[in-house]
Specification:
Number of domains of chain A: 1
Largest interface: A-B, 51 and 58 residues
Shape of chain A: globular
Strand order of the largest sheet of chain A: 1-3-2-4-5-6
Strand content of chain A: 5-15%
Number of domains of chain B: 2
Strand order of the largest sheet of chain B: 7-6-5-12-11-10-9-8
CATH class of the largest domain in chain B: Alpha Beta
CATH superfamily of chain A: Ethanolamine ammonia-lyase light chain (EutC)
Number of strands of chain B: 14
Structural class of chain A: alpha/beta
Oligomer: heterodimer
Largest sheet of chain B: 8 strands, parallel
Radius of gyration of chain B: 22 Å
CATH topology of the largest domain in chain B: TIM Barrel
Order of helices and strands of chain A: HHHEHHHEHEHEEEHH
Number of helices of chain B: 20
Structural class of chain B: alpha/beta
Helix content of chain A: 25-40%
CATH topology of chain A: Rossmann fold
Helix content of chain B: 40-55%
Chain lengths: ~250, ~475
């Protein structure tokens, strides 16, 4: 490119998903760009308020599924009281059998039931394929769940580790991103620093099912070998950067 | 110890401690309810305000919300208190202090003179008695001016942090967002990247990119990769082009420990950055970010309400003469600030209290997708903060941060505020915009502004050549 020739904005636009080169009317956004933003926000809001659909889930994964709920009770309480989203509804605790399994696989709606609807069954199938020979507790499907709800569920199931697949806080460009959190010896009071996380599972834009399952199972094997999870697992090579702080 | 109580029409309202009184007097927000310290009823909340209004300001020099022995920020506040400066307001109650701040006879110079004598808890207390319009009217009197390569916070000026984040820290993607922002008049406060990775090598790459861009276009601004102070110290050791030192801070020693910092480490990082001497029109090098709720989030709140703790974070900031202090007001989520109303209130409180304590306050006017808020709420907060005289706001492409997954204000939003309120960019940046054919002599973006900057050799963009 010759000196003094401008870099065209449409070439810049190809370099990032960020909303650049939108144009302007005075200082204002053109109508189309304004509506594009509103559409993305509307989809994210719908994902946050979507109720977890449970019908057909057991058939989709071909396994026994136990449904439970946190103590949050309703979506507004869920948002205001993260502490209640970490506690199991006492009525459900009795329905979890003590298994002594190698691992418990728990699916929670979190902040995006849409992520569970889009990706949870496919990711579980990819995990089952890679966990031949492991004893697995029945899959638990949890409503109004925070990550730490898996601690109580995993403990009730008597599992050696708990894997929680949960809808992440939706972004405008990613309303359906699933996160995976692995906790060794799950029990109430586990710290976030005692978990390992894999974020942004969301094909085709984010991590695909096979790649995600490979990395999760690698983490699970490492946890089984060292009998721990968290910062001491030295997971950098396995999981990449940490997810955003809110959950 | 004084009794914290009030009688209203035959009913006695008593509060167990100063921190209980402050918490009860605070306008309702979800974080204080989550902590179990919010007022039990709307009536009790106003009763607490009556009790607070009659409290002498000097009470805060005798009774501490977190004990002196238990917390190094309490010690910083007590040991750093400027008694001569306090003398101007020492005779006042909290209610009287509110009226003093709003009195037309009290100008910005008088407030600035008293500021070193105001403790964070006094600032928090008076703000709890102030309506939103009071927070705007009082803050508007106070100008806090800082400088590095540009001068930020002058009357009639509004600066913008250009925030070109990218989910994989791709230099070309970040450069693209940066150029887009510069073309729209953003970046005079700082060009600041939140990196997705916390690797030192990534930060060094991004700092080099921003420095190449700045020098190629001779932009009078500063750059920053928002990591951890220990990373900045290491980057300085490696010779990376560090302009500013960034750190997230909170209002208790325990919460700061959760961030991996203490006052001594901040002092070390401040000295190392200042020693580089890279500023041209000033030498303010610290960039702090704060936000209500961070101490509760770290389980380090000592039963103190989140707004008072936010003010204590400002005590940390003012010990280091920062260039920029930014409250990221809506990022933390609805369990701390539930909706647009609570985010607005917190934004006005943080701006006013920060300015009262002598800080160059900017606001990241923002929300997450699980909060009851949208861009209309941000428009209102942005406009009110512009009226209140905010030093700077964020400029995020299309208001959509694709790395942090939240919504802030956009390059366009900053233009709206400048245009609507007649605010201008930092003077050095305004002159640069004029030189580049982007702006007129008053810093307004020209309708004839080019849609692209002229080509310069930027190694990170080399693959775009030809």
């Amino acid at each position: 490119m010759a000196e003094e020739t401008p870099i065209p904005l449409d070439r810049l636009r190809g370099l990032t998903q960020a909303r650049i080169a939108l144009g302007r009317v005075g200082q204002a956004l053109p109508t189309g760009a304004m509506l594009d933003f509103q559409l993305a926000h509307a989809r994210a809001r719908d994902a946050v308020s979507a109720e977890l659909r449970t019908d057909g889930f057991a058939e989709a994964i071909g396994r026994e599924v136990i449904q439970v709920a946190s103590q949050a009770g309703d979506p507004v309480t869920y948002l205001r009281r993260p502490d209640l989203g970490r506690r199991l509804d006492p009525a459900d605790a009795g329905r979890l059998p003590r298994t002594g399994a190698d691992a418990a696989l728990i699916v929670g709606d979190g902040l995006s039931a849409t992520a569970v609807h889009h990706h949870a069954a496919s990711l579980l199938l990819a995990l089952f394929e890679r966990l031949e020979g492991w004893s697995l507790a029945p899959v638990v499907l949890a409503r109004h769940a925070r990550v730490a709800l898996g601690d109580e569920i995993g403990a009730a199931l008597g599992a050696r580790m708990a894997l929680v697949l949960i809808g992440e806080r939706p972004g405008l460009s990613a309303p359906d991103s699933l996160g995976a959190y692995l906790t060794w010896a799950p029990r109430r009071g586990r710290l976030d620093s005692e978990r390992n996380c894999l974020s942004n599972i969301r094909p085709p834009h984010g991590l695909g099912y096979a790649a995600a399952a490979d990395r999760i199972v690698a983490l699970m094997r490492e946890a089984q070998r060292l009998e721990l999870t968290g910062v001491k697992l030295n997971s950098d090579a396995l999981t990449g950067p940490e997810p955003p702080p809110t959950r | 110890m004084p009794a914290y109580q009030v009688d209203l029409a035959g009913t006695r309202f008593a509060f167990a401690s100063l921190r209980a009184l402050l918490a009860a007097a605070t306008p309702l927000r979800s974080g204080d309810a989550l902590a179990g310290i919010a007022a039990e009823s709307a009536e009790q909340r106003v009763a607490a305000r009556y009790a607070l209004a009659d409290l002498p300001l000097a009470t805060f020099l005798e009774d501490f919300v977190i004990p002196y022995e238990a917390d190094e920020i309490s010690r910083l506040i007590v040991d750093g208190h400027d008694a001569p400066a306090f003398a101007a307001v020492a005779h006042l109650t909290v209610g009287g202090f509110r009226e003093w701040l709003l009195d037309p006879a009290t100008d910005g110079a008088a407030i600035a003179a008293a500021s070193p004598g105001i403790t964070p808890e006094m600032a928090a207390a008076v703000s709890k008695l102030m309506r939103n319009q009071d927070l705007i009217a009082a803050a508007r009197k106070i100008r806090i001016v800082t400088a590095f390569r540009s001068t930020i916070g002058l009357p009639g000026r509004l600066s913008v942090r250009l925030q070109p984040n990218h989910p994989t820290d791709d230099p070309a993607g970040i450069a693209a967002s940066t150029l887009d922002g510069l073309l729209l008049g953003s970046g005079d406060a700082v060009i600041g990247i939140n990196p997705a990775s916390d690797e030192i090598a990534t930060a060094a790459t991004l700092l080099t990119l921003l420095d190449e861009l700045r020098q190629a276009y001779e932009i009078p601004t500063q750059s920053c990769v928002l990591g951890h102070v220990t990373g900045t110290i290491e980057l300085i050791r490696r010779g990376a082009p560090v302009d500013l030192c960034f750190q997230s801070i909170a209002g208790t020693e325990a919460a700061n420990r959760g961030f991996g910092i203490d006052l001594a480490l901040l002092g070390e990082a401040h000295a190392a950055t200042q020693a580089l001497g890279r500023g041209t029109v000033g030498s303010d090098v610290m960039y702090f970010e704060t936000g209500q709720g961070s101490a509760l989030s770290a389980d380090a709140h000592h039963g103190v309400d989140q707004q008072t703790l936010e003010c204590r974070a400002y005590a940390v900031a003012r010990a280091f003469r920062p260039l920029l202090v930014n409250s990221v007001v809506g990022f933390i989520g609805p369990e701390y600030l539930y909706d647009g109303k609570q985010i607005l209130r917190a934004a006005l409180e943080d701006h006013f209290c920060g300015k009262l304590l002598g800080l160059p306050m900017g606001l990241d006017i923002c929300y997450t997708n699980h909060a009851e808020a949208d861009q209309d709420d941000m428009d209102g907060i942005l406009t009110l903060l512009g009226v209140a005289g905010v030093n700077f706001v964020m400029g995020v492409p299309g208001a959509d941060d694709i790395m942090l997954n939240y919504q802030s204000t956009s390059f366009h939003d900053a233009l709206y505020l400048r245009e609507t309120l007649g605010l201008r960019p930092a003077p050095e940046f305004e002159a640069w915009m004029q030189r580049m054919g982007l702006g007129d002599e008053r810093g307004r973006l020209l309708e004839s502004a080019p849609a692209a900057l002229p080509w310069r050799h930027i190694p990170a963009l080399a693959h775009l050549d030809g």
